[in-house]
Amino acid sequence: MLVCHAVDTASLAxxxxxxxxxxxxxxxxxxxxxxxxxxxxxxxxxxIRETIRTISNAAKQVCAAICLQRFCAQHSIAHxxxxxxxxxxxxxxxxxxxxxxVKWDSGLNSLALAGFRAKLxxxxxxxxxxxxxxxxxxxxSNVENLGMCDAYGADTDGPIDMLLSVFSLxxxxxxxxxxxxxxxxxxxNVGWGMPVDPDLLDSWxxxxxx
Length: 210
Fold this sequence. Notes:
Blueprint: H1 9-25, H2 30-36, H3 48-53, H4 57-74, H5 80-90, H6 98-111, H7 122-125, H8 133-149, H9 158-172, H10 198-205
Helix pairs in contact: 2-9, 4-5, 4-8, 4-9, 5-6, 8-9
């Protein structure tokens, strides 16, 4: 005999979030992480992993968006959907209220181009050379999911692992990685709700082009 149990809305939401975080975890490229985790960051005397750990998640998200912009510029990849996604990712650094976060999260769901499985949107795929497609799909997937990884208050290595994977993909394709020195003014915090100072955000925009 089949027995059905009532499931309340909170339980469903918890299981949905758990599943979402599991999907995010599958994006981590531990091979790339191992090869870069002890790389010194010039001028700071810290391994790059530990330097990334000191900056805010908003700074990590913006840094990843800059990496995507640099990759696109160097390899002549252009599409309006990419432009919309990148601008939306920058907006993560300005979220200051729950309503703003809900709006941003909803917008990301509609603008995402690769998702958890790193399968790139068909329209955008047509703008990418075939030999770059696989790595570019992974790049977009890591960049667009980085901010959400700890968005619900967790404090994990997920955003660090994703940003290291992004750096490795840029390095593989000879795209300059932005200096992390510019982001250390935005000190470590998790989740969202601590908007980056507009003047600091403007200074980060100057890093979009290598």
